Amino acid sequence: MTPVDSHGLISIRRSTHSPVITMVGAAVLVGLLSAAPWIVSQSLASILMNFFILVIMATMWNLLAGYAGMVSIGQQAFVGLGAYATLYLAIKGMNPFVTIPLAAAACGIIALPITYLLFRLRGGYFSIATWVIADTAMLIIGTIALLGGGTGHLVPGLSNLSPTALTDAEYLATWIVALLVVAGTYFLLRSRVGLVLASLRDNEVAARSAGVRVTSARRMVFVIAAAGCGAAGAVLAISQPFVQPGNEFNLQWSAEMLFVSMIGGLGTIEGPILGSIVFFVLQQSLQQQGAWYLIIFGALAMAVAIWQPRGLWGAFRDRFHMELMPVGHWVRETKRPK
Amino acid sequence: MIWVNVLIQGILIGGFYALFACGLSLMFGVMKVINLAHGDIAVVAGYVAVFLAPQLHIPEVWSFIIVVPIFAVAGYLIQRTLIQKSIDRDPFTTLLVTFGFSVVIENLLLEIYTANGQSVNIGALIGDSIHVSNVIYISYISLAVLVTAVVVLAALQLFLSKSGTGRLIRAVADDREAAQLSGANYRHIFGIAAAIAFATVALAGIAYGMMTEFAPTSGGVNLLFAFESVVIGGIGSLWGTLIGGVLLGIAQQVGAHINPEYQVLAGNLLFLVILGVRPHGLFGKKTAFS
Amino acid sequence: MCAAADPSINSNGALIEVSGLSVYHGQLCAVDDVSFKVERGEVLAMIGANGAGKSTLLRTIAGLHQATSGSIVFNDQDVSKMAPHRRVTLGISLVPEGRRLFTSMTLEENLLVGAHYANKGPFNIAKIYELFDWMHDRRRQRVGQFSGGEQQAVAIGRALVTNPQLLLLDELSLGLAPIIIERIYALIPEIIAQGVSVLLVEQDVTQALNFANRVHCLLEGRTSLVGTPAELSSEEIERAYFGSHLSGYSQSSHGGAG
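Above: the input entities. Below: the C-alpha cells describing the complete assembly.
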C-alpha cells in the first residue's frame, strides 16, 4: 500500500496484489450471500446457514489455537451457554433475535473468571480442563427445570413469524453474525493485539522478556472466542429451535472446529472458511453413510497436522504468495530510485 | 452407616480411576504427551475382549490375558509412528493428532458396533457382593478392580525404580538428549512407555466392561475422570493418582447420594476447587506445570 | 595401550577424521567448512571465543546436530548420518555443556544409565568410584543437590562407563572454581592412559594448552589457527581467538592465553 523506507530499498505492504480486486470481490460476495435466501433454494440456504455457524465456531477456535496457542476442546461450553442464554431470555419474553448479542456478551463475561482457573494449566492439561468446564456447564444446565432440564426446551417467540419469513430472518441473522465475527477477527489481528499474538507465536520467551503482556492477550482472546461461540450457539438455538444439553454441549462441536481449522489452515483467516467448505462438501456427499464423514475428516485432519501443518490455505499461500485477508506485512526489496 | 457405604463405594470406584489414569500419567511424564485418545483406547479394549475372546474360545473373564499383550504391542507401534511423528513437530500437534484419533476411533466403533451397550460377561460374579451390613455391601468385581489397581500401581512403581529399563524410562523423562548420549534410543524407550500405558488402559477398559455397560462414547467420560484424578492427586505422582482417584470417587458418591444428577458434577466441582486452591494437586511436583 | 583395539581397524588411520564440516542453525552458519583429525591416544583442544561454533561442532560429532555438508569418519566408518545413540555404541561419548545429569536420580543410577549400553572396556562403575574416591559414599544421594564440580565429575563418570574410544568434553570449566577445574583436568592423563582419545572444547585457553597435544582454534565457525602448544605464540593465539580486527581487545580476562 505505502512504500515507506527513506532509502527506497524496501517496501512494506499488507498485500502482494492490488487491494482493489479483493475489495470488489468481497463486495460482490457479500451482496450475493446477503440475497441468497431469495436466489437459491431453501435447502441450499439451510446448508449455507449451517456453514456460517461452523465458520463462526472455526474462526473463533482458530483465534484460540492458531494465534494464541490454546487448544481448547471445551468450546462447546460456550456454544451451549449461548444457546441457553437465548432460550432463557426468550422464555422471559424477549425477541429471540435480539438475544443474540446478549448471549454473546454473557458468554464473554462467564469466560473471564474461568480463565483464572484454566490458565493455571498448560498444554494438554489445559485442553482437558476446558472439557471439564464444558461438562460441568452441561450438567449444571441440565439441573435447571425452567430450561427443560436434561430433556430440553423449545425456544419460544418464533411462531409469530410466517415460516418463510422465519427462515429468511434466521439466515440473515446467521450471515450477519458470521460476517461480523470474520471481519472482527480480521481487524483484531491487524491491531496491536494481533502484533502481540504474532510475537507470542514466534517466540513466547522473547515476547515475555520484551515486556509483552502475554497473559492478558491470551485472556482477551479466550473471552472473545467464548463470545463468538456464544453467538454461534444463539443462532444455532434459533435455527433448531429445540435446545437440549446433550446436543448444544456436544464435544462434536469442538471436534468440527478443530478439524475445519486444521484442514483449512491454522493461523490464517481464510483457513477456517476454506476448511468449512471442504467439510460441507464432504458431509453432503457422504450424508447417507452415517458417521463416515467424521471418520474421514478426522483422519484427514490428523494427516494435515503431521504432514501439512499450515493446512490447505497455507500450502496454497506458500505456493502463490497470495492472501485475501492479509494481517501481516510483506517486506520486499524494491529498486533504488534514481 | 449410610455414609460409611458412600465412603466405601467411593474408594472402590477410585481404584478404577487410578488404574485408568496411570497410563495417562506415565505418557505425560515420559513423553510430555497427553494422549486425548486414551479413553477411547480403553473402550476398544473392551470391544476386543467382548468380540475376540469368544472366537478364541477364551472365557471373557480371562480375556485380558490376550488383550493386554495385544494392546502393549499396539501401543508400541502407535507411539513409534503416529505419536512420534507428532512429537517431532511440536507438543501442540500431539494434541491435535490424538484428539483426531479419539474422534476417529469413537465414530469407527459407532459404525461397526452401533451405539448399543456392551459388557464383558463375568457370569454370576457380577451380582455377588460381600454384605457387611444392611446398607454396606462390597461387590466382588469392584473389590477385584481396586486390588488390581493397587497391584498395577505398585508393580509400575517397582519397575520404574528398580529395573534397568525403568531407569532408562526415567532417564529419558529427565533429559532426552542426555539419555541419547548414554546410548539410549529415546524413540524406543518412548515406545516401551507407551506399551505399558496401553497395557494398563486396556486392563482398565476390560475392568470397566466387567463393572458396567460401555458404548463407543464411554471413553471420553472416563478420560475426564482419569484426568481429574491425576490433577487432584498431583501430576507426576503415581500414588497421588490413587489418592486423587479415591477422592474423586468419594466426591461423586457423596454427590450421587444427595441427588443422582449431582454425581459427576460433584467430582467436577472437587476438581475445579483443587485447581483453584492447590493447582499442583495434593502430592504434585511444581515442575510439571512449567 | 589402546584398550579397545580392534584388529579389523586400520591402525594407520586417525581415530576420527572430520572433513569439510558445515553446520547450520536455520539460516545461521555455526560451523563453516572445518576439517581436522584426532589421532589415537591424542588430546586435541578446540579453542575459541563464545559463539565460535565449538559446542555445535562437538554436538554434531556426537550426533545431536545434523551436518549440512562434510563428513565425520570414525574408525574408517562414516558416521555423519548415524543416530546419536548408535555413535555411543561405536565408541563416541560426549560430556555435554551444562553437565545434563538425570537430576531426579541418584549418583549410582546416573552411572547405571551410562553403563546400560556400555561397550567392553576398562571402565565400569567400580572403576569410576576408584577414579573419584568421594563417589562411593554418596552413591545413593540425588545428584540434583550436588555442587557444580561434583556434577561435572558425575557427568564425566557417566560418559566414561560407556567405554568410549573418543571422549568429547564440552566446556568442563564452565561455572567452576579454578581449584575444581584443575582437579578435574588432572584426570585427563589417567583417562588417556586407559586408551581413550580426547577432543575437548574450552574457553579457558590456559587449561587447554596445558593438557592438549594439539590446538585447533575456531573463529566465527571457521578454522583460524592449528598447531601444537609449543609452536604457537600467545600473540598468534590471541589473534586467532579474537580475530585480528579485535586485537586491541586482548587485554581482557582471556589475556592469560600463554
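Note for the figure: The first helix of chain A runs from residue 19 to 34.
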